[in-house]
Structure formats: C-alpha cells, structure tokens
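Sat 14:20. Reprocessing the chain from the morning session after the first attempt stalled halfway. Input below, unchanged.
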Amino acid sequence: MNAHASADAVTRAAAVLDEAVRTGVPCSPVRHVLPEADIDAAYAVQRRYVERAVTAGRRLVGRKIGLTSPAVQRQLGVDQPDFGALFADMAVPEGASIAPGRLLQPKVEAEVALVLGADLPHRDPTVADLLRATAFALPALEIVDSRIADWDITIVDTVADNASSGLFVLGGTPVPLDRVDLRGVRMTLTRNGETVSQGTGADCLGSPLTAALWLASTLARLGEPLRAGDIVLTGALGPMVVAAEGDEFTAHIEGLGTVGAAFAAAATEGTGA
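Finished this time. Tokens:
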C-alpha cells in the first residue's frame, strides 16, 4: 500500500472512531480500514487523536501500558505491549461515581501506577534510571473501554483506539519504591464484595518495572520521552472484569494499599410527588 493510500486509511479509521465517541454507538473494527497488521498505521491514528485532544485543550498527564499479559499477547498474536495516552479529564477521584453512559463498554483492571519525579529521556534506560526517576507508586484502577463493538479487537484496533483507554482512579497514599517489591505484590480485585480478579506484580510482563522500562525506551525512541510529573499505568496485574451500572470495585495491592471505583446506577423514572 502506498503512502497516500495509507494516509487516507488513517484518516478514515480516525473518523470511524470519532463517530463512535460522538454517537455513543460502538463501531466496526478499524482493522478492516487500515493496512493489514500495520501497527505503525494504528499508532498514526492514535497520534492524530492525541494531537486533536491537546489542540482542544485537554491536558496530557501520562501514558498507559497495555497487553502486558503473555496470555493476552498470544491471543492477539503479538510479542510486545502497547501504549496509550492519559489525559487529566480521564482521572476519576476516589469516592466519585462514574455516571451511566460515560463509557461505552467498560471493564476494570487493577494496576500499579508510577508517578515520575524526573524525566526519562534515554533510549536505553536502566532499572536504576527508572528507580531514580520515580517519585512514588500508587494502587490504581484502569477502567478500559473500547469503541469497537463487542470488544472485537486485534492489536491494530486497540492501538488505534488509544489502547482501549477509558478512565483511571489513583489511590491517595504515595509509596516510595524502596518500601515495596513491585514484582512480588499480590493483587485482589472485588466487585460488589466478591473476588473477581487476582494476580501478582510478576503477571505484568514479569514486573511493573519491566513494563515501565519498555514504555520509557519506546517513547524516547519516538521523540516523546516520559517527563517529570507523568503518570504511568504499568499494566494489569490480573484479568479485566466487565463493569455494569451500580457495580462497586475495590482493589487491594499488597504494600501499596487500596483503591476503589463505583459506577452509578441509572436513575429510574418515577411519577413524582
């Protein structure tokens, strides 16, 4: 496929995803629009989304890492993670409810979030660089969402769709990295009091630090390095779980604490007094 045709495909895929956001109706997979298995084209769609969001006044506050589970990588036929952009308006304060209809097809996963205190500009960062640059870690919930109907996605679909990003919730108690072994942490996620997902730090690409190093290196090579203040959602510690209106989720990550999210129930129509 020539460059012009590829650029046209990127434009068409971006328009399909934009329409899903505008109408609230999930769309067909964009892999049918983009060149087959062209991850670079998918990232071009994502960059277009990010650039338009920033131009519209949204504040970029970090990145999320996806596809950190070897099982999910095998399922989608890839051998590396992916990433998406985090904006300030995607952050949900603990205790705040998520309004019905804010997302199309939400699912919840528990993660380790890192908050950077220094830039990571190197293309070949070491663990020492990452440890020195990280101000603290937090427990986090990522509320993933797909604009693709029925989550019928390949790597091309999810990358183009900003790595299936939706919202995120951060815990409020920062923990320095010298106080926690991120590889060994154990996670339990409950929905309405029932355990629905479990895992460990090692389930995230071997360690959340390994995932963060991959992201730092990848972004530096793209000329968009991680900066001081950035939030990094390092990837799921266990399987993601479908969320419905009225559901309440709580994640406990050993050594980091607890973080929760609630999905408001839709208001029922009444006759009034």
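The chain has a mean pLDDT of 93.
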